[in-house]
Design a protein that fits this description.
4-stranded antiparallel beta sheet, 1 helix
């Protein structure tokens, strides 16, 4: 497998997640869920800024107006980067005080897909929702434990999804017109000795780049054969998510975490919690903006 060079972006997140490429701003965003921080890294200057919230931000998306859409605890909000104003859009599972959003993406039709989990990681407590222009969450999957990575194929006919503790990448038939999904098969079975599958993105060749929590890297899987075809090795154990971005969509921004590491392990892996930029030999896709009213 190829050896990749990486550039570290210091952020020292307790739980870095939610990487997102904002094309208009030519910058990457990501969050530190437990410390309530939103980071923005400008490619041109190499500078990183952060904003703090009194909530747990887990998901960064973009609306069709250029504003961010953030998943904060169990609520979705529009966030104006210029005025710093939050506009609340909706809440899911209001009766579940221990629940929060975990991962989210926008499908090719502009619908938001976003999952929940219990902060106690209660088995089967989480769900996956689809949110259209009417802002009414529709539950697509239930009995999830850690709702995580999502990706759609270029032809919009297939949806990939990860519920982390299953150690699987599930493949669903996807109806772009209705948003209906139907489980087709298990595309990839991931051995536990190389970590747990977390966040995920897809490249233009249809390969899946998956962050492995406890696996010290991002692994490139062929969902058609189930085979591992490449790996980006990183100097930290807990790798949480990744997304393509950059001028040519050929850079991965990778988030990592300090959680579940002892003090001795943090000394051994001092870059845990930082983000990493890696140039790949393939390209991803621009993220879809959410088509909200």
């Amino acid at each position: 497998m190829k050896t990749y060079n990486y550039t570290s972006v210091p952020s020292q997140c307790f739980l870095g997640e939610g990487p997102y490429w904002h094309h208009d701003r030519q910058s990457f965003f990501w969050v530190d869920i437990e410390n309530g921080k939103l980071f923005e890294h400008k490619i041109s200057s190499g500078k990183t800024n952060s904003i703090s919230f009194p909530y747990r931000p887990a998901v960064v998306l973009e609306g069709n107006d250029g504003n961010l859409i953030l998943g904060l605890d169990r609520k979705l909000a529009r966030y104006n980067l210029e005025t710093k104003e939050l506009t609340w859009l909706l809440e899911v599972e209001p009766e579940e005080s221990l629940h929060r959003f975990n991962d989210g993406k926008v499908d090719p039709k502009g619908r938001i897909w976003i999952g929940t989990l219990s902060t106690k990681f209660t088995k089967g407590a989480g769900s996956l929702y689809c949110i259209d222009q009417d802002l009414i969450p529709q539950k697509k999957l239930s009995d999830l434990t850690i709702s995580n990575g999502m990706a759609w194929t270029k032809d919009s006919e297939t949806f990939y999804f990860i519920d982390s503790p299953t150690q699987q990448i599930q493949e669903f038939d996807f109806n772009i017109d209705t948003g209906a999904i139907e489980l087709k098969r298990i595309a990839v079975e991931i051995p536990q000795d190389i970590g747990t599958p977390d966040g995920m993105c897809i490249d233009q060749e249809g390969m899946l780049w998956v962050a492995h929590y406890g696996g010290s890297g991002v692994y490139r899987w062929n969902p058609n054969s189930g085979e591992l075809v490449d790996k980006i090795e990183l100097p930290v154990p807990h790798v949480t998510s990744c997304c393509f971005g950059g001028k040519d969509q050929d850079h991965l921004l990778i988030t990592t975490a300090q959680e579940n590491l002892t003090q001795d392990q943090l000394k051994e892996y001092p870059q845990s919690g930082d983000a990493f930029l890696v140039k790949t030999n393939t390209k991803g896709f621009l993220p879809n903006p959410a088509q909200l009213k």
